[in-house]
Queue: 2 jobs
Job 1
Amino acid sequence: AQRVTQPEKLLSVFKGAPVELKCNYSYSGSPELFWYVQYSRQRLQLLLRHISRESIKGFTADLNKGETSFHLKKPFAQEEDSAMYYCALSSGSARQLTFGSGTQLTVLP
Amino acid sequence: DAGVIQSPRHEVTEMGQEVTLRCKPISGHDYLFWYRQTMMRGLELLIYFNNNVPIDDSGMPEDRFSAKMPNASFSTLKIQPSEPRDSAVYFCASTRDRATEAFFGQGTRLTVV
């Protein structure tokens, strides 16, 4: 069965500092991975997906199959990045998402 | 499109009462998912539908939980009887044609006292 692990429930960094949110997965097939973000009082929304290899709001994430990781990184954190971040893996016939437990990121002024 | 719409946004009920959560998916989306979010367990998939048909309900915690999708634009998640441990935020999400981006509603925060 698939599993997504986010080891940090809480992460605080200062504005301008680099940030890395960790995500590890276990899945027997070829993984399709995502990062979703939930800003305060807003709905969960897609931030980025590994197949796009894009940078959104300065965030990037690289799939490392050897380490089964998909860490989210940003070189210079901004206060507006404060949110809950979920790593997710898509699998099954409906490509349903299996989520990690989430990391609450707080960017301090 | 207004996106996925859930109602109510907040629900407070007494233990033993029936609770019904509602979801309107994005028009044209043929997959609908119900998730539960708690501090302890994060986001868990409860059940999903394809073209209004329940496909996988293995995530439904107990027989007290049931879900229906009578048509393409409406789904309900019912808890009867409710218990305090059911307190959580319940999210509905929809996708189109196995597309990989899921669109989420704003959730229903359920508190059972």
Job 2
Amino acid sequence: TQLLEQSPQFLSIQEGENLTVYCNSSSVFSSLQWYRQEPGEGPVLLVTVVTGGEVKKLKRLTFQFGDARKDSSLHITAAQPGDTGLYLCAGAGSSNTGKLIFGQGTTLQVKP
Amino acid sequence: DVKVTQSSRYLVKRTGEKVFLECVQDMDHENMFWYRQDPGLGLRLIYFSYDVKMKEKGDIPEGYSVSREKKERFSLILESASTNQTSMYLCASSFLNDGYGYTFGSGTRLTVV
């Protein structure tokens, strides 16, 4: 069974601080996505990484896929209150069915 | 703007009622999914469908059934609602064999009393 473990589960920081969220597995994934979910809404796709070692940037967010395609990280620079939400990583497994494996999520609170 | 639409944002039902949650997508996606989301438990897959009239059980199918008569519509049915089915229900869709991510609906917050 493929599993994705996210850490930390909760993060509360002040505006302007930097943070990193990790997503780890012992399994190889063909691709990995990051989503952000605001309270009362569905998750929204932020990025997909496909190639081992790939780095993608989305404004102040930097996403990295591990060389072995077993892990990923999300780094936020100079966090803002608008970054508050639940961050989910999800991996596409080897079965190639389109079914994703989700991590448990990281709840981020950015205080003004 | 492409989207997944869930019929209700909030729903309150009584124990024992039959409950229908509807989901419609306009992206011609083959795959459709139903998840429930509970604090501390993350997203748990209930059922998914990769084609019309096709369905597969997810991790927690007990107490639920699904229907997919048309490609764009995927319904979740609670045969006899119970209080432990109080949850946030999320529908999602994607292209077949596409590891490029899901499009989620806004969710239905179901309360069973």
